[in-house]
Amino acid sequence: MIAASTSNLLAAREQMAFTLAFHIPFACMGIAFPLMVLIANWLGIRGDADALRLAQRWSKVMAVTFAVGAVTGTVLSFELGLLWPGMMGRYGDVFGIPFGIEGIFFFTEAIFIAIYIYGWKRLSPRAHLLSAVPIVIAGIGGAFSVVTANSWMNQPGGFTEANGKVTSVDAIDVIFNKATPYEVPHMLLAAYIVAGFLVSSVYAVGWLRGRRDRMHRLGFVIPFAVAAVATPIQLFVGDTAARAIAKHQPVKFAAMEYVQKTSTDVPEWIYGIYNGGNPKWGISIPGFDSFLVGFSTDSKVTGLDSVPTSDQPGPKTLLHWSFDTMVFIGTGFLLLVIWWLFVLWRRRALPKSPWFWRCCSVTGVLAIVALWCGWIVTEVGRQPWIVYGKLRTSDAVTNSGGIWITFAIVIVLYGALLAGTIVLLRSMARRWRAGEEVDNVPYAPPPG
Amino acid sequence: MTSTDVVLVVLWIGVTAYAVLGGADFGGGLWDLVAGGAERGRRPRDLIDRAITPVWEANHTWLIFDLVVLWTAFSPAFAAVMSTLFVPLTFAALGIVLRGAGFAFRHVSERLEAQRAFGAMFAVASVLTPFFMGTVVGAVASGKVTPSTGSAQAWSSWTGALPLLIGVMFVVTSAYVSAVFLVHEARREGDAELERYFRTRAVIVGVVGGAVAAAGVVVLHADARYVYDGLVGKALPLAILSSVCGIAALVLLAVRETRFVRGVAVLAVAAVVWAWGVAQRPYLLPKTLTIDQAASSSGTMDALLVIFVAALLVIGPSLGLLFVLSQRRTLGKE
Question: pLDDT digits over A284-330, tens only?
């Protein structure tokens, strides 16, 4: 009985994690890619024919990735109820408010993407450019709302309850909970970084294959520049977020930084395997964790020993490695951006070294890895709670059997979805290279 | 009227909108499925595609809207439905993925075989998804979902005669609404042949739908007595309105007076949705959970009202603009 329900919980968590991990890169494209299309379009109507052509093609890519993001997002709203009825039954009235707001933004974004794609031949260039602005704003608003819901799970507030039933709700306090100020900007910037590096990495591969015409260069520079602006800010925001987590969710912080005992002068571990006390095979920097938390090695950091094992997240090594990997990738991005800026400053040109382009060609994948790592830290680090300090994940999970089966179906289906998406995007690129136009995209009017 | 009443009415408007617009989309998939081989079915398929393309995403946003409003305003009811009806709801969710992906991918594919495969995926999912959604409604109406059922009747809750019949009714109704919409589209494009094509089909599924509905009343009497009593009691005017509109739409189709048929058919579907709601009142889950028991506190309801007003102000004009654009010709230049 206990074994069965544990297995159910694990299956539900894995399915949720898998579907979220699949959805989030597409969500990033939905949030951040419209800005890059807008920039290309703006350059285009100022007389740059290459930029205009790029904007036209990108808008079609945007339609495809938005469609995939939309269907996988719909699945998530089903899953919240199907997998976690215990949370939705008890806190649906609180948790639902940011989702209601998100609905407005999502609807607006869907409508304006259709308007933008229809508008290429039906609106004046100026009006058409303006029709992309609501897409950019709705993307930001939608991300704000959804991440707000997640930050509420980390720092629940804005309600009172008695006997396990919510008795009053203050919507403003729900939305602007304690984790909102650091979680929302961190994810928004991540969206711009993921979309920026993902799109520019495609053109970096093109560069390595000798496609270096003006359109390819623009296709690289516009998204890369967006990511380049976001990257240094992200390192600052991420650092602030980590310090806030040390304060708001000390056990999460202790697990991701291998802090066993509450003390001062806590060392910073770089990788290493968790084994209770002293981590194995890691590099330790004495006192540095304390320094990072409170700008002094005398800062006290709360350790895992502050709560019983049953109140700690399970896989500490996973958390720690995810956190370190995210930080390393982010730092690597910063170095790459500096390289780009340095060459730009000295030579007013793109770097020539193939190593720059090889690095750029993997940034897209690495950005997604960093994104996943960040969400692993947030979500696995919150365990065993689904709503921090209020409701355990094991009390929220469905009793329905067969989650491993639905999970298996989901994997097969999403595998096909991913394969289909990649094949189609590649076939669009192939047709564009051959000089054909691609008119048949979702949301688009019939050709002609 | 309390804020709970207003939220409930708005939720029901959302459910109605999904039944009509989402239904028309699903039905389009059904007509795509039965349109025949690639050559023979090309013209009706193209019309379906032209009709669905600008709205296929927006129409299904109603589903998200309904889910979010239900879980926010009436959380215990949402949790109960999701726990007990895990199986059909999972199938419905997967159907939505297959349908959306199939539709989007068919558009972008260049090879005929790929278009065929994605098209089949889109069409089959378009038939299965409303069926499973119908079984969910049938299970709720027959009182199989209670706050304490949990996952105890994972299969039997939705495989009784009533849920299965309502599942079929959802498919038939979708096909009917869609055919009527497509008659209108064909007429707008001045294509008399396609207008006739979909008119014939609308009449056929209209008659089938009437038969299924009649059978539904009998099964309802046996399996969902509370809702049946409501339908022949307080919801009788709505039930009559729906039947009259359903018959009137058939007559209009038969005499080829297709101008008003769309409005009349929509009214027939809307009246059924509202009749169901009125018949179930004051229960959300018949006999075990009332609206008041499930309703969230006033803070949540007020927040929802603000969200509704904001949505109306933002989405209304946006949708209007999209509609105007989709009807507008391309600019002379380019």
Answer: 888 888 888 888 888 889 989 999 999 999 889 999 999 999 999 99
| Token couple for A400 | 């329905």
Beta-carbon separation of B79 and A86 below 8 A? yes
Residue type at A25 in one-letter notation: P
- CB A76, CB A106: distance < 8 Å: no
Residue B328: strand, helix, or coil: coil
How far apart CA A331 and CA B10 sit, in angstroms, is: 49
d(CA B172, CA B185): 20
Q: Are A442 and B56 in contact (CB under 8 A)?
A: yes
B107 vs A440: CB contact, 8 Å cut-off?
yes
Query: Is B97 close to A100, i.e. CB distance below 8 A?
Result: no
In angstroms, the Cα distances linking A226 to A135, A141, A362, B114 are 17, 18, 17, 36
Q: Which residues of A touch B75 (CB under 8 A)?
A: 88-93, 96
Please state, in angstroms and rounded to a whole number, the distance separating the CA atoms of residues A400 and A183: 32
With contacts defined as CB-CB under 8 Å, which chain A residues touch B65? 103, 107
pTM confidence score: 0.92
B101 interaction partners in chain A (CB closer than 8 Å):
67-68, 71, 417, 420
| Structure-derived torsion over alpha carbons of residues A200, A202, A204, A210, reported in degrees to the nearest 10 | -140
Residue listed under structure tokens 């002609």: A448
A169/B303 CB distance under 8 A = yes
Please answer yes or no on whether B82 and A85 come within 8 Å at the CB atom.
Answer: yes
Does the interface predicted TM-score (ipTM) exceed 0.95?
no
Contact B78 A81 (CB under 8 A): yes
Give contacts of A114 with chain B, Cβ < 8 Å.
54, 57-58, 322, 326
| C-beta atoms of A77 and B82 within 8 A | no
Of B68, B73, B328, the CB nearest to A77: B68
Residues 184-223 of B with CB under 8 A from A: none
Give A165's DSSP letter: E
Q: Does B117 touch chain A (CB under 8 A)?
A: no
Enter the tokens of residue B94: 């997967």
* C-alpha span between B240 and B291 (Å, rounded): 25
pLDDT per residue as tens, chain B (334 positions): 788 999 999 999 999 999 999 899 899 999 998 888 878 888 999 899 888 877 777 777 888 889 999 999 999 999 999 999 999 999 999 998 888 888 878 877 778 888 888 888 888 999 999 999 999 999 999 988 888 877 788 888 889 999 999 999 999 999 999 999 999 889 888 888 999 999 999 999 999 999 999 999 999 999 999 999 999 999 999 999 999 999 999 999 888 877 788 899 999 999 999 999 999 989 999 989 999 999 998 899 999 999 999 999 998 898 888 878 777 666 543 3
Q: How far is B132 from chain A (nearest CA, A)?
A: 14
C-alpha dihedral, A35 to A442 to B322 to A195, nearest 10°: -10
